[in-house]
Structure formats: C-alpha cells, structure tokens
Amino acid sequence: MTSSGNRSYPSFTKTQARPSALAHAIDVELRRHRNPARAPAEKAYLKSDLEFLGVGLPAMREAVRTVKRENSGLDRRGLVALVRTLWSRPVFERRMTAVLLLEAFQPLLRPVDINLLERFIHQSKTWAFVDELATAIVGPLVERSPTLLRVLDRWALDDDFWLRRSAMLALLRPLRRGDGDFTRFARYAEAMLPEREFFIRKAIGWVLRETGKKRPELVYQWLLPRCGVASGVTVLEAVKYLSARQRADVLEAYASTRRR
C-alpha cells in the first residue's frame, strides 16, 4: 500500500499492468474493504443473485482512480481484457468496478465494443449496472459513432426490458444538454408507453424530465396528448421541470383520463 497524508491507496503499479494482475489487485483491494454486515442489505435492496462484499461505492471509485493514475498507458485491448476478467465472477463489486473502469476509460472504446456492452447489459439484471452502462458508456460511444444508432433501434425492440431501457437512456446526456435526438427517443417511448414494466415507465419519465430542463415546451407538446396512455410514474417524473401552467395542464389531462 502507498499513502498520501491520511489516505491509503491500493498498489496497482505499472509492473502489474497485465489485465489478470490488475484484476487480482482490484479483487484484493475490494475484499480489504468488505463489510459482511452491510452486504445482506445491499443484496436485498437490489434483489440480486450476485455475491455481495458490502463495499461502498467510494472505495470502488478510489480503486478505479488509482488504476487510471498508475496505469495511464492501459490500452483498449488491456481494458477489455480487464473488465471481462472482473465481470467473469458473479460478485457485485467486481462487476460494478468493471463498469466504473469502462466509464473512466470510455474514450478507448470502439464501435465493435458495443457487442460486449450489450452482453453486459443483458447479464446485469439490475439498474445499478444498466443505468451506468447506458448513460455513461454506451451513450458517449454512440455519440462518437452514430452508425451505432441502428443498434439502439434494435435494442428498443428487444424482449429484454433492460435493453429497451438502455436504448432510451443512451440518448439521455445530449438531450439533457439541450440537443440530442428527441425524435428517436420519442419513437422508442411511444412504443413503450403502454408497458407495465416499472423500469420502462420510469426511464421514459426520467428522459422527459431531463429534456424538460432545457426544452420544456418540447416535452409538454409531446406528453400532453399522450396522458391517456402514459403511466403515473412517467407523468409525475416528466413534469418536474415544466412551467406551473404546463405541469397543471398535464396533470389535469392525466387525471381526466382516469375519471372516465
């Protein structure tokens, strides 16, 4: 271990830059921070079949920062090998660290890596992985490589609702900035509005909410005529950044469809 002041850092030196050695060092560090008393609650909260060590997110992020600082020469091949190795064992913290590494090194990713990301999303079975993969990793990759939009089009029709959710969330960041492909998102959302799956309903509302920060009129005009189909989860999320008048109009339209 190395130290700086009162802070301790895991020892992921450049001599350990082989993916298997880095994965082992990460595993050792995660287990050093394990908290068996915390693990059962986290497992129950996420309703997951994975093993949990009870490690907090700050410790995982610190491990990733140390890998990045001490292995700045890590290339795409090494990154992919490292995250595959971490993901290969059904331990929540190993997989979460793999996701955080993909985020930290995401400029290294190339269009072909969408296949790996799709596999990770399909195997995730929890928003804790899916949302980070979709918004922070798939989204920027698609922005750099717009040909991948056809992959999102396919995900939006997939039987796996986590992939359908990811198709929408991958469009989130540019929409939040005030640009982005609202037409594509609206096409996805229109098809999914009748769904009863909570995580789909929540995702539609989430993207509408974030779009509404910069373009409330766009959200208002799209949502108002669809209040008879949209769920309460979607509507209540979507109206948060609308004007008082717009919010009242949408909520009244939603309520009126429930009184019929």
- CATH level 1 class label of the domain at 1-108: Mainly Alpha
Q: Specify the CATH architecture of the domain at 1-108.
A: Alpha Horseshoe
| Large-scale geometry | globular
Helix count equals 15
CATH topology of the domain at 1-108, by name, is Leucine-rich Repeat Variant
Strand order of the largest sheet: 1-2
Give the SSE order as H and E letters: EEHHHHHHHHHHHHHHH
Largest sheet: 2 strands, antiparallel
Q: Estimate the strand proportion.
A: under 5%
As a percent range, the share of helical residues equals: 55-70%
Structural class: mainly alpha
Unreliable segments of 5+ consecutive residues: 1-10
Radius of gyration: 21 Å
Distance between the termini: 67 Å
Rounded average pLDDT: 93
**What is the count of β-strands?**
2
Overview of the molecule:
With 260 residues, the chain is mainly α. The protein has a domain at 1-108: Leucine-rich Repeat Variant (Alpha Horseshoe), CATH 1.25.10.90. The chain is built from 15 helices and two strands. Strands 1-2 form a two-stranded antiparallel sheet. A hairpin with a 2-residue loop joins strand 1 and strand 2. It is globular and about 60 Å long. It starts with a strand and ends with a helix. Mean pLDDT is 93; it is low at 1-10.
